Prior knowledge:
By secondary structure, the chain is α/β, with parallel strands linked by helices.
Amino acid sequence: xxxxxxxxxxxxxxxxxxxxxxxxxxxxxxxxxxxxxxxxxxxxxxxxxxxxxxxxxxxxxxxxxxxxxxxxxxxxxxxxxxxxxxxxxxxxxxxxxxxxxxxxxxxxxxxxxxxxxxxxxxxxxxxxxxxxxxxxxxxxxxxxxxxxxxxxxxxxxxxxxxxxxxxxxxxxxxxxxxxxxxxxxxxxxxxxxxxxxxxxxxxxxxxxxxxxxxxxxxxxxxxxxxxxxxxxxxxxxxxxxxxxxxxxxxxxxxxxxxxxxxxxxxxxxxxxxxxxxxxxxxxxxxxxxxxxxxxxxxxxxxxxxxxxxxxxxxxxxxxxxxxxxxxxxxxxxxxxxxxxxxxxxxxxxxxxxxxxxxxxxxxxxxxxxxxxxxxxxxxxxxxxxxxxxxxxxxxxxxxxxxxxxxxxxxxxxxxxxxxxxxxxxxxxxxxxxxxxxxxxxxxxxxxxxxxxxxxxxxxxxxxxxxxxxxxxxxxxxxxxxxxxxxxxxxxxxxxxxxxxxxxxxxxxxxxxxxxxxxxxxxxxxxxxxxxxxxxxxxxxxxxxxxxxxxxxxxxxxxxxxxxxxxxxxxxxxxxxxxxxxxxxxxxxxxxxxxxxxxxxxxxxxxxxxxxxxxxxxxxxxxxxxxxxxxxxxxxxxxxxxxxxxxxxxxxxxxxxxxxxxxxxxxxxxxxxxxxxxxxxxxxxxxxxxxxxxxxxxxxxxxxxxxxxxxxxxxxxxxxxxxxxxxxxxxxxxxx
Length: 735
């Protein structure tokens, strides 16, 4: 039997789950079993758990359906546990280094206890000093094991479940489990404290609890606050049945109603049924108030008296005062510059939303491109009643296909579209001054699968952070998102970390990649002719990404003409620089064709027989074609340390990995990119990163976001093995 069973619910926290699991596996004390609880074999957390279970037999995953909630996940983990003591760790928290060693030593000192309370840190997700709210509660406790009667203030209400260690046999003997619903820690912790006969404390931080940017889910508005009354009633009734000492019952009552009153006076938490909620709380107060209970002093005492008397009018007055104090938070974001435009925008905001208007934008207005363009095209087919307007920079309107309505960014017309559109679709972000109106729907499509760090994850890389600007403003834009697109579970997890927000993740694939599964041989031939690829030549697309420490395009230090000469006489290069450099002059020379300014990256990829790139996200898109990919990265270590990355590319590349021009030329000259080893690497890469790109992503997005169809009506993703990529050109194949 292991000493400890660590139970980790993982639903909805896939982005940070690796940190939680690794914090356990890295413990110096090894006598434990780790029980991650996930909701389905194809859930985002399943891959994270499976990877660790494959390498460490102490990882024993179990299943609990999402409908069971946090309580169901913890109970499922408890039923599977075999350890002497149970520790509950949330999936976005971490176990402090040395925690298990400290817990084991403390248990040895006390001779074993039913419950061992420990300290925890509340770590701000961004800036600020960690807090240790448990320390004052535990500081006054005896140093040896003790009876709970000696510490009446340790009621189990003020310490979350993951701030304590529980003897498994004790929980089984007392039939203690987590009750259904929200605030389940209250319904579990209070009875556990009441049933325990021998308790101890550890004055050391065991768990580091991440304070979410969105705040606790329990603090959000909604009907779930009725569960707080259910859990409080359960705890108070249990204490009465157990015949707890008067001092312990008084402390339990006071702590429970401190939480209840905090909700009662909050102006936003109780959206409906406030009067009924208050009356129920008042009845609960009067029924369970201990004899001789002394009402606290000050403002809290006033709240106690109002609740005891059932004076809902008094609490309405308190809520009104709180609402007035919070009024400053409801100001609109800074409007656009220019007095005339500002007034025009404000007037437009007072007009009703147009239910059929969709505002599209791609790459900060660079044109008709990427996921927004693919969604726009599909919407014209499936939702012709919708009017789509593409927002572009001045001088770019002529690049938009005929028949597509446009508006120039910064113009009064563009601001009016932004004010009145019900749907706003972007692959980057709309301007800071755009107001998120009630009833509007913002879709963030993203524009690639992340290898390099994104969003707030860039903050620890000075070169990148300096160019990013205010992370606070970035997160203000994230708060406008209702939906965020993902092409694979890797992206889902990274977006959760990089852009913390309350949006819904849509694992639908990238609409821009649909063409890789729907294009025909004629489409491929047409694309090659349009780009000027000579008949019978092997077209190698070279697409390096931007270096944050460079100020211009340097082609990654690769002499492309020399590469062509060394790779073979049939090779031509399609050069596509990062879109930051798409306004420079053409760089076509000899066997190098500059396609940087071509409006469609997808057409360029269709025309190419093979891809050479470094760290560009184009590799993830091109992999859908199942054509050779070669990574040329002569500065991987510099890029990794300067820009930051999410996975080790040299360890899991989509094909051969070259570090010098000579190695790159040899790969093509010898046909290594066409070999079995390259195909195996590409297959593994496709399995991981082409998960949802099946040719129907745009349809799923239009149906779910623009037509409002329920998730269960959306077409499922076609399995990778059943997809047929667009055919490559009939070019010579090396033996």
